[in-house]
User: What shape does this take?
Amino acid sequence: MSIVMKNIDTLAAVPPGPLAGPAMRDIPLIHDATLEIRYGKIGWFGPAADAPSRLEDEQTLDLRGATVIPGLIDAHTHVPFVGNRADEFARRIAGESYLSIMQAGGGIRVTTQAVREASEDQLVESNFHVLARMATRGVTTIECKSGYGLAPEHELKQLRAIAEMNKELPIELVPTYLGAHAVPAEYEGRPDEYIDRISAPELLRQIADEGLARFCDVFCDAGAFTVEQARRVLTRAAEVGLRPKLHADELEQIGASRLAGELHAVSADHLEKIDDAGIAALRDAGTIGVLLPGTSFFLGIEHCDARRLIDAGLPVALATDYNPGSCMIESLPLVMNIACCQMHMLPTEVLAATTANAAAAIGEQHRIGAIQRGYDADVVVLAAPTLNEWFYTPGRQLVAAIAKRGELIWIPPSATEQAPPET
Ligand SMILES: [Zn+2]
Assistant: This one.
């Protein structure tokens, strides 16, 4: 079964990632383009004038006035979770510190308590709709982390909820095990014992054997886990085939990005406090830097210096970091607008960071994140004639249609002026 998209005003023909330096900026933009979808894969694409005649008789979509991009990839989220911390949000805005909120019984421990009390079904029920809403913004692949159960059985429950939602949703979820997210209350002052528990070989083997995670992540920072602890967890995880990721250089510079380079991590995420040695380590190891400006926006703190990383030749991705404590932004396009307006990333760089480079940040750059013959036909149609027009209207929903593996999974009720339905 084929679909041919014709008269596309702008086709953003993003090449496969990872893209670094000028390659992030110089995304080929083809005007008056044709794109063929064949059996779920991308077929012929290019200027309409060059289209082969066999495409003339195929089922056609007239996309005059539209821009077509690869399906967006959110390479860092903390779905699934339950529990509401809106009161804490207001207290923080009023000036209370995260530490004092935590000492008063708030913070991540509230979420851990709620996740431990929830059943797997409840996790699925609460988070399914969040992921569906994220998808309506043009996102066809979402990385999801455990990390709120903070005990083997509850971490496994979170990972099983991700697997269940992956079966039910028309988009694709990529699971990451984040047992080393925080030290739970019952292990206060005994982080090494906790580390040994959540990186026990039999637990890691079970996660890998059951296909419950593809990556293992550690929050390696001041107040979280040390470089030595992170190295221990990630080395053990790599032995069973779980590839390393790191929450690195967010709060303080303790050498987390250098560790990411040493371990050839797939990605190092956050990087607000990265130093030159860290940038060099990531670049030399082929590690993707995942920036999370929604979090710095939500917390009202300084963004990562994206220009410095891009100019140094590091392939950069962008993600929401959707989580109950530091970023409740579901919309990847809103985060893309923040990157554009506040981090001085160009629209083409932002697109590269949420497609080709985001695919590389989850190890899938050979299959998704690009307009490339033979790649999965994950494509998004925007009701804007150019990429710049899309970025010019932050917060406006201009996604007109979404295809995942060539299947149309979402078309809004009346083109684009209406908000997407509450799914
Ligand atoms: Zn995170």
Observations:
- Residues 152-168 form the longest helix (17 residues).
- Residues 415-423 have pLDDT under 50 and may be disordered.
